[in-house]
Amino acid sequence: MTTTVSVRYVGGPTSVIEIGGLRLLTDPTFDAPGEYAVGSRTLVKTAGPALTPEELGAADAVLLSHDQHPDNLDTSGRALLAGVPLVLSTPAARERIGETVTALPTWEHVDVERPGGGALRITGVPALHGPEGSEPVVGQVTGFVLSGTGLPTVYVSGDNASLDRVRDIADRFPAIDVAVLFAGAALTPLVPGVPLTLTSERAAEAARLLGARHVVPLHFEHWGHFSQDGSTLTTAFAEAGLSDRLHLLKPGEAFTV
To answer: What's the whole-model pTM score?
Structure first.
């Protein structure tokens, strides 16, 4: 690894990853706190973002884990997509949103030219937004791996709850430098009692499976449907003997390695 990567936590699932001279925005959500409808249900947002899109500045690409839930893509986030050169997401998101989105099927990749030469490879990796068999209810989601010559390797989980998917990713990418893990153990009455995202304990186990040198959690606060938070992440990583890998950021803060 010959260059750095920076992850700035904006709030919820939203962060800015700077790597190889490029700026990547994860799951853009910039709406105010309030109630947001998802079909017949309502999700409650308890805090707004630490930074506005204007304060963040231009992005070279958006990594959109999925579009069907407002806690991962809200009204402000949708408006932002049209101004970003590359928006990568699921084939289902491409069908719903249209040509603004480039579909990135599992294990396929795109290479993005870096300002100083060379390329950043972005690979779509598997994710499951709940237990096995839940996809017809919760929809299609994806994760991403960022890699390239002389670059750190970064895994962005998206709303994945499956350690089996993490094992598959670790088999193909055995040297993860930074894992950006969506946690929070999200719950919904549509899948009673079973988390739709990583629990804190599973986040620690995912870090171990990946051999990740550093872990930056996202999407563990700011919404009412999360059943775990930063304190449970701290406890789980301590109990797993991985406290030195965990970087629990406050909104607006950045971690650089």
So the answer is: 0.96
